[in-house]
Amino acid sequence: MKASAFTVATLLAVASQSTVAAELDVEITNLTQGLYFTPVLITAHDSEDKLFEVATEASAALQAMAEGGDISALVTQASASSSDIAENPAEGLLAPAASATAELTTTDGNEYLSVTAMLLPTNDGFVGLDSWKIPTEAGTYTVYLNGYDAGTEENNELVVDGSGAPGVLGIPAAPGGQAGTNGTGITTGDTNTMVHIHPGALGDDDLEGGNSDLNNTVHRWLNPVAKLTVTVK
């Protein structure tokens, strides 16, 4: 049976629409009370070139971001795979309740959106969106983002000067100045070395000792940690 000209034309139009470039405004809002986001990375990419994937081991590039907020290796990785990139729309840290917006033009074939940034103060926590399919119809879409654990560092909840490099145990900074000191370290027994949903912070109320350097009235949090508002033009 021969397909009609109308059917063929329709199929071609649908196929073309599924890979067409898009103009996006991407706004990220920090929903937490006491966490800060390090420079945010937003990419549009194909189905293979992800920034991260749950239940897999973190790449070295993801580890560098999750432990120290360094997105440079992820940017290099995304550039090499011809992803479309928007980086650091907040021009630094994104504070609690603050928002930042990036404009992103996607190229043909880059149909998925991913987002990542380290959560401070955590050992290796990050806010993430993995491969959200970009709608083909114009409109405004809202997505809520979870906090993930890279699985590369123990969550000892100690703020340590000089930490943040991959493999150096400790939280590199606690923006906001409400963390404690001289903690002995949290021991959770979490041995999951894959990327997974972050269990959140425990903290305590002893700012001059205790187990954790995190303040349990400021730094405890639940998912979701961010809201993403995507406007497809």
TrEMBL record:
Native source species: Pseudoalteromonas espejiana
| The keyword Signal is assigned to this record | yes
Q: Which Pfam families match?
A: Spond_N (PF06468)
**Lineage of the organism:** Bacteria, Pseudomonadati, Pseudomonadota, Gammaproteobacteria, Alteromonadales
- Spell out the InterPro entries in the cross-references: Spondin_N (IPR009465), Spondin_N_sf (IPR038678)
Q: Which residues form the signal peptide?
A: 1-21
Q: Which residues cross the membrane?
A: none
> Which protein are we looking at?
Spondin domain-containing protein
What's in the keyword line of the UniProt record? Signal
Annotated Spondin domain ranges read: 36-154
